[in-house]
Every structure is written in structure tokens, then in C-alpha cells.
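Discussion board: Methods & Data

I've been asked by a reviewer to show the raw model output for two of the constructs in my manuscript, not just the figures. I'm not sure how much to include, so I'm pasting the format here to get opinions. Each protein appears as its amino acid sequence followed by a line of C-alpha cells. Is this the kind of thing reviewers expect to see in a supplement, or should I convert it first? Here is construct A:
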Amino acid sequence: MAFRSSHSLGRPLIAPTNLTKTPSRNCKFSIQNCSLDPSHSRKLVLEVKDKLEKEHHSLPVGQNGRDDEDMILWFLKDRKFSVEEAVAKLTKAIKWRQEFKVSELTEELVKSVADTGKSYVHGFLDVHGRPVLVVVASKHFPDVHDPVEDERLCVFLVEKALAKLPAGQTKILGVFDLRGFKTENSDLKFLTFVFDVFYYYYPKRLGEVLFVDAPFIFKPIWQLTKPLLKSYASMVRFCSVDTVRKEYFTEETVPPDFRD
């Protein structure tokens, strides 16, 4: 999956805006449950909403649009409640959704590349209640497959995984099955694209990434990729198939590819 213009993944340090001094707690996907005082949270959401309407009136409205208050709150949390930073990142994300035509992605549109089995959303949640997005690296051939179709499949599956989020859960698990990985499967741009998508357009939705049974030839690729990911690299865990089975699933829910 090639990404035409990879972005720098530098993370600016942003000061919180009037955060309460109470101990932090998990922030659910609603204004009322946020660690900020509800009235203050609401005020910031409306401030962002108003700025988007005045400064970016051409952006669409509705779900995932400039007036989607849940989406606004999510980006505010990501930007540590900095209104200006949230507006900037939201504007970029909403424009990207328009240009990429995310709302038009369907099973039929991505069927040809999905049929390769290179990536899919698992039918069960992991033991932490997270939807699971699986990538089978040995089935990815960047010199053969259309990178545009690969990008569409990637975004379609992210959307599909997020649609499976149960109440109270906010993040998904990414599993890279690296068994059988060879040089011809190598794609630095693919890894960069995946993490770019999550950082810029689906912030704080990726909870953990498992690199399963990584062969020796994968190590140099990781060493090249890791500096680009900055803090996101800390989400990656190298582990074995046995670890996936025992720590992330039950006997009934483990993906078929990872069964004994």
C-alpha cells in the first residue's frame, strides 16, 4: 500500500487548556464522561464547532462532518483540549475524508484486493473487547497490487473495525502476521501509511499493534520505520503466535490463522 506523500510524524507538545486537577481517568466517547468538567467540555466543543462553521463553512455537516460533536470532542482530547490544534487537525481530517471518498467505500469496491486475504477484520473481539484488524504480510506484494486499491482496503477495514466498537471501548487491536514474510513483501510506505492514517485521521483509535513471529529479514525494515513513528512505536509488541493465542483470545475467539 503506497502512500503518495508520507507525512512527518513529529508530535508537537501542546499545553492543556484549563484541565481540572482531579486525577485523570479513562475518557469515554461522550462529553459527560470526559475528565474535564462537563460544562467546560461542552464549551470547548461548541467553540470548535463555531470556528469550523465560520472559517470552514464549505466542509460537510452530519456524521464525521464539521458539526459532529462526538468527533469534535475526540479530536479535542487528542489535541489535549487545544481549540486551535483541534480545529486544524479536524479540518485536515474532514477534507481527507471528502477527497478519499471514505463514505463511498463498500465491500464490493474493495472486493478484488480483499479476496487476496492480505487483510481483514476478525469476526471476534480480543479479550480486552477490542475489534481486531489482521494484516497477513506474506500476501502483500507492492510490485503487483494496485497501491490505490490497497489504500482503499486499508481505510475500509479501519472503518469496519471502528464500527464494531462495543460500548465503552474506543480502540482497536492491529495484528501483523509476519510468518512467511520475504523481501518481496517489504513495503516501508505501507507501514508509514497505516500509522499516518491512524495519527492524522483516526487519532487514539489504535490501542496496540502486534508483530507476530517477525523473521530476521524484517528487522532492518523495522529499524528504518521506527524513527518515523515516534511515540507510536511504543504501541508495537513483537510476540509469538502462542502469545497471541494465550494473551489476546480465547480458544473460541482466536483467528483461524492462529489456531494450533
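Construct B, same format:
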Amino acid sequence: MHEKLIQLITERVILSDEEREWCASYFEPVVYSKNTSIEAEGKIPQYLYFIVSGYVRLFHQNEKGEEMTTHINCPPGFITSYFNYINQTPSDENLECITDCQLLRITKTNLDKLIDKSSAFKDFSISVFQQSISYNENRSKELATLTAEQRYLKLIKEYPNILQNVPLQYIASFLGMNPKSLSRIRKQVIR
């Protein structure tokens, strides 16, 4: 399971054989079934997850008790409640497997050890966190400036497999609309 992670890392930095071994020893492989909650709101996120296969979402409940999906992560990639993971503070989000998932996970303590031991991992970690910040800024801007149809079209263009793997209510919530609006937009796009 570590091959995809090492491949992603080596696209950005050079790893020695020893650093590859550290990657395998610090990132623990785990497998979860569909609909498994892997991190709960109100608790400090224990892990940063690398998605080898499957789909994972971050969500919280609004004041009406409705689930609001804030992030859907497609493989390969990292996911956690970043701010809370980095600062080791309780999160207001839940992390849940949408499909069966193969993941690699690392604790904050072990990530810190890996970064201290290896400048390559430090550089890669900075790159991942910068990418996360950039993604979140772009997402905020898109929610504010793009129409619902534009957001939907952009999503299916960038992640064409998402519709086959993620329930429409999660996609609608992620796009900032209700499922009826998404259904109407999908019908218009198909025409």
C-alpha cells in the first residue's frame, strides 16, 4: 500500500532508501468499510490519512442538525481536519469513509519525528499543507463566485469518477446546494 504514497512523494522530492523505509514504518496501513466513522467531532484528530483507494469526506452538523459536507477526498491524497490535527485541538468535524477504503495513517507525533529526521519529508509536508491552504482558498472563492451549475460542471470535469462513488446528497452538500437543486442541474446538463 505504501507504493502510491512513495510515488506521490517522489514526484516532489527525492527520497533515499532509508527515507523510503521510514515512510513504510511510520505510515500505518488500515482498511475501513463503507460508512465507517474514523475521526469524530469533539475529539482531537489522531491521524493524517493518505487515501490509497476509496472516498472519504469531512462533515459537520449545522444548527438544524443537517450534515454539511465540507470536503470529499478522492484517491490519492491526504485528508484530516488539518487545523485541529496540526494544533492538536478538538475538531468540529467528522471524518467518514464513503466507500470501502485503503488508507495509510500517521500520528502527529510520528509526523513530527519524520519531519525532524528528514528534510525531504519536511519539504514534502510543507508542500502538502500549502496545497491544502490553496485548495481551501479556491473552494471558498468558487462557492462565493460560481453558480451552482458552474460548481457542478467543474467538479465532474476535475473528478469524473465522483458520481459513481459518492452519494448525491454528499455531493450536493459539498457544492453548497440541496439535493433537489443538484438533481435539477443534472437534468439540465444531460439535455
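Answer (T.O., handling editor elsewhere):
This is acceptable in a supplement if you add a one-line summary per construct. For B, something like: The chain is about 50% helix and 20% strand.
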